[in-house]
Amino acid sequence: MIKNPIPWPDGAKCAVAITFDMDADSQFHLENPTDAIGRVSALSMMRYGPEVAVPRILETYKQLDLQQTFFVPAWCIENYPSVVKAMVDGGHEVAHHGYLHESPLAASRKEEHYWLQHGIKTIENITGRRPKGWRAPLYHFSGNSADLLIEEGFLYDSSLMGDDIPYVLKTDKGELMELPCHNGMDDWPQFAQFADFDYWMPIKAPSKGVEIFREEFDVMYKYGGLWVSVWHPFVTGRLANWDKIAQLIEYMKAKGDVWFAKMEDIALYVRKCIDDGSYTPRTDKLPYYINRVSLTPENKSN
Length: 302
Fold this sequence. Notes:
The chain is α/β, with parallel strands linked by helices.
């Protein structure tokens, strides 16, 4: 079912990247600018991420000998530096996720570039390394995002949903690796119901919510795909959820032929395969459309 499978390293059947977006309370201040600092219950829920869940997640990773990727808004890095340093000390990748979880779609090119550069500097200051990967806050990859990422030397993006395996984004500025995700691999539809965000979904039992991630893994394992989770510490890092997720990770590791890797390492490996001719990716040329699509008399159907 995958026409151009990737020869994953050491004969692995598929690749797995457990990615967390450690947003903490960043976006909350944008959504509620007048009274966010007074909404103590909501803040306590979101601060659970960096203060309780991430240390729990890092300990599980240590026990299972995993190094994975965290996408972190720069504001969260500035306000929760110790937990970000713990990520780095554990060998994990810290990737770019905006400044205050702001939507690139709401920004001009100049504004988007400013916050992209600010985040780069913040990550460099804390981790000592320039970030190689980016995930657009809210998946809001704008018409300027690809060009800006290429200009700033990013290796990969993980915001788009156009394939089951890595592919290439090409613009007039150059190329960018896309490590795709999709909404079904996000934990919000499974476990989140937040009145302060006006987000209402029926919360599943952890044993039920984890089923979608297990089934997504099984099919990626069967056909040689790339499994990328989009999880949030204050959601999936909750005790009962994480207990079931830890069991899922153990299930995946028990296969013995699954490649667990940081996103940067996956992107570097795929680039190597492209360069040596062992993998020919699908390429999306951006922008998809030059002109706005609209219904006008000349293109109405009869």
